[in-house]
Amino acid sequence: MTDCIFCKIINGEIPSNKVFENDTVLAFRDINPQAPVHVVIIPKVHIASANELCADNISAVTDIFSAIPEIAKAAGVAESGYRIINNCGEDGGQTVLHLHFHMLGGKNLGEGLV
Ligand code: AMP
Ligand code: ZN
User: 37 CA distance to ligand 1 centroid (A)?
Assistant: First the structure.
């Protein structure tokens, strides 16, 4: 997708502070962190949102979750813990239409979700 910010980060057109990368997954520091540790985790394939997931592209999600322990280690939160969030659509607060998961940590985030 030529006009997608995260696709531009994947192809190097926009710089990012990388935390982890493999063939299918990229993780980088969020530009506007909501916690002391805030990493954005994306598939290298363009999928607009969780609403677009199906049997044909679900490997993008399994690839991401397979990499989460390594990403948490690289981000320094594997021992202390973290929260993984996906925002989907308008009410979900999604602002970038390329599927991504937020990894938040570096402090006690409490028990509430909203
Ligand atoms: P969401 O609101 O769930 O769509 O999350 C999009 C996230 O991407 C926000 O937390 C933004 O701060 C983050 N973001 C947007 N542009 C960049 C960028 N160029 N580098 C790093 N993070 C970004
Ligand atoms: Zn994209």
Answer: 14
Active site residue ranges: 100
pLDDT in tens, 1-57: 789 999 999 999 999 999 999 999 999 999 999 999 999 999 999 999 999 999 999
Nearest CA-CA partner of 99 in 5, 35, 20: 5
Contact 87 CB / ligand 1 (< 6 Å):
yes
Residues 18 and 12: beta-carbon distance below 8 Å: no
pTM of the model: 0.98
Q: Taking the domains of the chain in order of start, what are their residue ranges?
A: 5-102
- Say which CATH superfamily domain 5-102 falls into: HIT-like (3.30.428.10)
Report the nearest-CA residue for atom 17 of ligand 1: 31
